[in-house]
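WARN retry 2 of 3 for item q-0093 after timeout on previous attempt; input resubmitted unchanged.
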Amino acid sequence: MIILDYKDTRPIYEQVVDKLQKLIINGVLEPDSKMPSVRNLAMELSINPGTIQKAYAELERKGFLYTIKGRGNFVTYNEGLYVLKKEEYRGKIDRLLTEAEEIGISRTEMLDSLKEGEK
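OK item q-0093 returned
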């Protein structure tokens, strides 16, 4: 389900948030499905339960999860989340293209590199 990269400079909870967001957006975790308990997921990933709790809280804040007291965390999904994530990626791409131009790589050259990667 989730593979953590201990060489990644981001905190573990951010990696968990990122991986779970992708699973939700891609439909792997279906709307209204129950998430693993904090304790179970922490044991599965061999990390502190507080880390999972923090990740779940962040996902709830962003609108990817909702909590039912005494029952656990559940997946929520709406098209708006997908659109927001898509816009976030577009922003990242724009920043990357701008940075590339600053060091002398044209947008055309960058886009050609992306097209080559599709093959």
